Amino acid sequence: MYDVIVVGTRVAGAPLAMLLARKGYRVLAVDRATFPSDTVSTHYVHQAGLSLLKSWRLLDDLVATGCPPVRNLNFTYTDIVINGMADPSADGIDAVYCPRRTVLDKLLVDAARAAGAEVIEGFTVSALEFDGDRVTGLRGRAGEGPEQKFEAKLVIGADGANSTVAKQVGAQVYEGSPAACFVFYSYYEGVDWGMQHRTGFGEQQFASWPTHDGLALVAVMRKRDRFREFRADPDAGLQEIVDQVDPEYGARLRDTGKRVEPFRPMLYPDNYRRRSFGPGWALVGDAGYHKDPFTGWGITDAFKYAQLLSDLVDESLSGVRPFEQTLAEYQRERDAQSASTYELTQSISELSLTPYYDSVFRATSMSPDYSKKFFGLIAGLYPPDKFFGEAELAELYEKVGFPVDRRHLTRDAGVPA
Question: Where does the FAD-binding domain lie (predicted)?
Answer without folding.
Answer: 2-337
